[in-house]
Amino acid sequence: MPAHVRKVRLRGLLALRPSLDSLATAVELALRKAFALLSLVMVLTPGAARALAWPDVAERVESGLASMDPGKRRAAAKDLGTLGLERATPLALRALADDDVEVRLAAAKQAIALRMIAATEETLPWLSDRDARLRVAACEVSFAMPNPAVTVAPLSRALGDSDPQVRAACASALGAQGSAAAVGPLSGKLDDPAPAVRSEVTRALAKIRDPRAVVPLVSKVQDAAPDVRRDVVRALGELGDARATQALLLALRDNVTEVKVEAFAALGRMRAQEAVAAIAPDTLERNAGVRQAALVALGRIATEDAVRALVKGLGTQEDANGSLERTAVRDALVTAAHAGAMRDVLVAMTSLIDKPGSSAVATSAAWILGELRATSSAQAIVSALRKGTLAPEAAMHALAGAGTAAEVPTVLEFVADPHPRVREEAIRAATALLDPAKPDGRAVEPLVATLRSARTSSEERAAVATLLGRTGAPRAATELASLVSAKDSALRLAAIDALGALGSAVPNHGVADDALAPLLDDRDPVIRLHAATALAASGGKKAESALLAKLDGGGEIDRYAVLTALAGIADRLPSEGTTTRLFHELANAAGPERDAVLEAAGRARLPAALRGLAAVAKSDDVDDRRMVATLLGGHRGSAAAIALLDKLASDPDERVRQEAVFALGSIGDRASVARLASIMKTSDTAVAANAVAGIAKIAAVLGPSQASFIASVVCPMLANGSSVVRTNALVALANAGARCEGNVAGKKEMEAPSKVRKAVTIFIFDDAGAVARPRAPYLLEYQDGMLRVGITDRRGAAFDPAAPAGTVTLRRMPGR
């Protein structure tokens, strides 16, 4: 499998993750064999079945609710959720007033599922009903659809209910209202006789986040029930008020481990500097849970004293074996560095690797420097390696993160080390430090020598071949070309992929062309797939001519492989003649091959490609128009492409509109935001989600200078019923550095949007992982958190001509 295609398990899913160039579109037979071991399943849409209902369902439910038979009314009430919010609301409101308790309970459950806001006020009278189940249900409805203006008073009164289950449900509902008016009534129930109620009251007060709750909660730190003490300590940590510090220090002496652990977490969350001395002794505690909680707390507090306490924990307990795996104390020091103690941590770690002493401590210190990508300490790591105070494998591991181009020669010295573990870490470091975009010829000779060394295992030879591709050095191509016919299949595939990784580093492309083009006739479909992908990334005009000749010839060929290679070459080395020639292929192409031809012809950023796409956009074939919309997303800077996408955004088929609005985000400008803003208000969730995604992409280009403009457009979408739409709205805000009124901000911990764009193709397979699924629904998540909704093309693929650099992940479609 090409190096830029990885396999990832995601909650029962396996997703292909392309992170560099386009994944080749191989012939379906080839795909079946090449990916037979994959178990990628198609994206499922749990809400889809609920959204579909036969035309007579509403009438049947209405008729059932009007029946004199309670059983029929109960069955009808349970079906309300199949109708959708608009159709179900009047019927549900009628069911909520039914004489039968079971009907009302079923209707309440469906109202919650549909987020029927009107149900909240409708069910409040139930709080005085004789049936405790109805009283609990009323609280649950208020919890699900808060409306503090009308709920706080009746829910507060219900806190005096005789049934503890009702009191607990009402306390939880009051917390969901988020109203300061609920603090008083809730605080008065901290002494409720039922521990479960006291816990719910505590959690509700934490959710409201009103400082008036601190003092009442402090009084319950020594509650008789351990679960209540745990919840109180957690609540005080979430409130983050310094007045709770002494009470939390007292909780550190609690004889229940869970309470003690929560106290550590609370003090760490509050960054309570005065707690360091009390926490430090527990970093050596034998109980792993307590020890880890203490370490995490000190990492969050991140004062100079906290760092010193953490340093003392290096080389102890699970950190004593000198492994290169992460440990709690290492993670805590990394956390402390990111929390404001970077200088203190770097100074301490750099000092530790330089001193003769415990090898375990030096290994941990180097590991932390690598994790922090402390390039300023790279030379200190090399110096410690030379002096012998740092083991070679630990130094290589650290340089993978902290190294720079200056350390590449040092790393290459160890690629052929006698010890397998050292070689493994050196290869890993070299992989991290070598960048094909920055050719480094110094690495070629040492790597070639390692390839030819007798001590290099077959697995290591494949890894070294991959490294040759990452050197970006033209002379590496000759060595790699000699390996594409190797008997070892792993080495052969690595060499093919490495030639692709060299890309434009091979000036005349001749070496790669001569080595790779013949492989498209190989009997093995896996070889053909890898060769096609490599040619797409590095092939030149010589290969292009050979590939076109294959299309013209009468012999049996892997047309998908050929078209995949031509698509990549057309993207990098566009030619009017080749583009026109490929569009002529459409006359004889049908089914999945038609999408492969369109991709090969349409990726060239030339007038001929735009003319051809414009002609295909007039087709009656929905799949043709969808593919055109997708491909136009690669024609940035073209007013003609924007105009054509604007037209396709009004296509009568929602599948075409989905692709058009997403693509418009890739090539549009500020003026395109207004167009997308009008489209995102549609009732079609997929189109709305992709329209907001389009705005998010444009926001990344516009940047902070247009923050207010982007906020004015997308902030209203944070109230949308679809979580996909809301997520994309948050991404748009984050990309623009924007905020909404009320301090609603972009997604936390979101990575900065990448300016690098690459073509990406992802195949979505059936349950057996053998056949790509055409027209299958999918949800993709990009590196910056943006979500894309779509339907695979006729090949069973999702294509993006301008995907941001990084991982693309297949996700499950959430319900509304």
Q: Main traits of this protein?
A:
disordered N terminus, 3-stranded antiparallel β-sheet, flat, mainly alpha, 816 residues
Describe the structure.
- The chain has 816 residues and is mainly alpha-helical.
- The protein is 58% helix and 5% strand.
- The chain has 43 helices and 9 strands.
- The strands form 4 sheets. The chain has a 3-stranded antiparallel beta sheet with strand order 7-6-9. It has a two-stranded antiparallel ribbon with strand order 1-2. Strands 3-4 form a two-stranded antiparallel ribbon.
- Helix 42 runs antiparallel to helix 43.
- The longest helix has 27 residues, at 328-354.
- It is flat, with a radius of gyration of 31 Å.
- The model is unreliable at 1-55 and 743-750 (pLDDT under 50).
